[in-house]
Amino acid sequence: MLLVGLALSLVCAVGALAAAAGVVAVALPGRPEPWAVHLLRRAAATAALAAAAVYSSGFFGVVASEQAFGDGADSIPAPACRDGFDDETTQGLSHHRSSYLPLRFDCVRDDGSVYSSDPDYVWMNRASASLAPAAVLLAVGAAHAPTSRARKTEKASS
What we know:
The protein is mainly α.
């Protein structure tokens, strides 16, 4: 499952880079017309694929942490809550909470205090939450650009 997640994240990242190259190509001489529509579409694809790459990376990180819990003799409490933390941090560890939206794998102590198993989930959530709406806005802009252009042409000819 982790290899599938890595492959999906890699495919999305490569797609985002290819779409970003398309954005740059529109800015060069010989660009397709109407260039604004092409630019918006390619930028939307870049943002969407980047959001998918970031989110899938975090999603499969949470999946891997969930799978490691309860899988073998040294799997309780969750290895993600123990590995890389000092004894003082993990003292009194009782259970964990995970979420796929937003991404998180939190470790809970007996006293109710919580710490994150991986601080990277914060930037992954923020990046996904920023890139996804940006992709939607760019796609909406690309869809409305031809009608806007037609209106301007119509007004100019009147």
